[in-house]
Design a protein that fits this description.
two-stranded antiparallel ribbon; mainly alpha; 266 residues
Amino acid sequence: MIRDITLGQYYPGSSWVHRLDPRTKIIATLVYVAAIFVVPDFIGFAIAFLALAAVIVISGVPLKFLLRGLKPVFFIIALTFILNLFMIPGDVLVKWGFLTITEQGLHTAVFMGIRLVLLIIGASMLTLTTKPINLTDGIESLLKPFEKVGLPAHDLAMMMTIALRFIPTLLEETDKIMKAQQARGADFETGNIIRRAMSLIPILVPLFISAFRIAQDLAMAMESRCYGGSGKRTRMNAVKLGGNDAVGFVLTAAFLAVIILERILI
């Protein structure tokens, strides 16, 4: 389960999506996420799904790899589905004692479930097709204009990228700790959900210690390379928009226009 989390991982490739400027992909992702939240019906989700499917095919990221990333959040998706299914009032479809499924509840449950799946896969495509260092440069470049009002663009971009970059590292460390404790007789698989959650508490202390150790090692490595945070910093490979990015912006604008038209006309 721990290894199935794909958020923060980078899938190497040389596709058209991989070669796009990180700023283009960040803006396209933000537009996609906003569109997912404003679509009013399943037709809008169908449009978003087709756009996402096209990006996945072009990027060359395996579908199994993306679907595997849904396993760790399956509980959240299932809980959201169940809560909406039984707690939305309306026209009754099925009734078992105090449990009631309504037509509106079923519609909302399916709607919210699809929204979560599309959001998770869409957001994962950003990190899967963008190297962490490029993601840092892209975020910093987009936040650069806000430095005039005192926003530390570089520091904020670095913190966000480090957080994403070390998600896989901490997950790997968690997996090692769990295997070490299982070798000593710990049981994380049996019992009800409360007991299984309680059994994870002993993992937290060594995980926090490991996280602080990793953070200290990273800080020492950055200091030894004379990293000084924000300021007049140069880059070996500066981000630069090209023809591919122009096509990307046009396609993003077209997607947004279709979503807006669908919301207005239907």
